[in-house]
């Protein structure tokens, strides 16, 4: 087998939470290009269906749109059941769904804190728990969570303690789950992006139009990258090319963390 063949995902079924837009959409498309069947799983049914159809047209992949709230246990269980009904297995889970609240702790409400932690961290727990069932029952799998460089550094100038705490939790969760599920042949890793141009970063730009320049000044590559710059790392971590990689974080941040 040639080295590029090891990145192929033919006959694999992948669930991508938040696969309808932003980073998740680029990941869903890339997994489809690599040969996987792709489940686009997010809250908004209409945009999920459009994304699934466009990815199928563009890549030839089999796709399915499944509405899900990753913070809701019944909804996550039903997402996995729908995937099994359509494709018969789950081989790859990409925990990508995430939200941010830009608020100082002085003004942050408990509801805001809970919404961030429940989506970004509890969602990773629930999706891994239920997608992990068919992986454990079968021949293993790969879980890739989209964490953030915010798990490792303090962000500036925006305020976002709940977000950073949730992403730190995802990193810690990942190392522990990798240890507990190695015996089932399940690899568990994260990709930790820096600033990527999506609705998420546009939200910060809407409040502070100069924020891009501050961010760029703090990184080596001075660029807010497109979502397509994160997707290849996820294909790698999901694939046999990363067969010996588990419990790891791959930072994709244009050199923010070394500055
Ligand atoms: P977007 O705001 O563009 O997309 C967020 C995605 O998450 C949407 O697809 C949304 O779909 C989905 N989502 C949100 N809440 C839920 C929920 N409860 N259940 C299911 N789906 C949900 O953000 P990004 O693409 O930027 O972010 C994707 C991931 O990347 C997040 O985890 C984010 O923290 C992380 N990240 C982003 C960075 C950036 O600079 N953009 C940097 C580092 C990490 P819908 O609304 O239909 O549910």
UniProtKB/TrEMBL annotation:
Q: What is this protein called?
A: Short-chain dehydrogenase/reductase SDR
Q: Which UniProt keywords apply?
A: Oxidoreductase
Q: Which Pfam families match?
A: adh_short_C2
Positions of the Ketoreductase domain: 12-199
GO terms (molecular function) for this protein are: oxidoreductase activity, acting on the CH-OH group of donors, NAD or NADP as acceptor
Which NCBIfam families does the entry mention?
PRK07231.1
GO terms for biological process, alphabetical: carbohydrate metabolic process
* InterPro entries in the cross-refs: KR_dom, NAD(P)-bd_dom_sf, Sc_DH/Rdtase_CS, SDR_fam
- PROSITE patterns referenced in this protein's UniProt entry, alphabetically: ADH_SHORT
Q: Report the coiled-coil segments.
A: none
